[in-house]
Amino acid sequence: MLEVLLLQRAPPIISFSRQNLSY
Questions:
Q1: Spatial contact of 22 and 3, defined as CB atoms under 8 Å apart
Q2: Could you tell me the pTM of the whole model?
Q3: CB-CB contact of 22 with 6 (8 Å)
Q4: What pLDDT score does 18 carry?
């Protein structure tokens, strides 16, 4: 849930980095 909030707030670049870490 927190990830979704960060993704929406953070730009696409950060969101991509976060997804990479999640995987």
A1: yes
A2: 0.20
A3: no
A4: 63
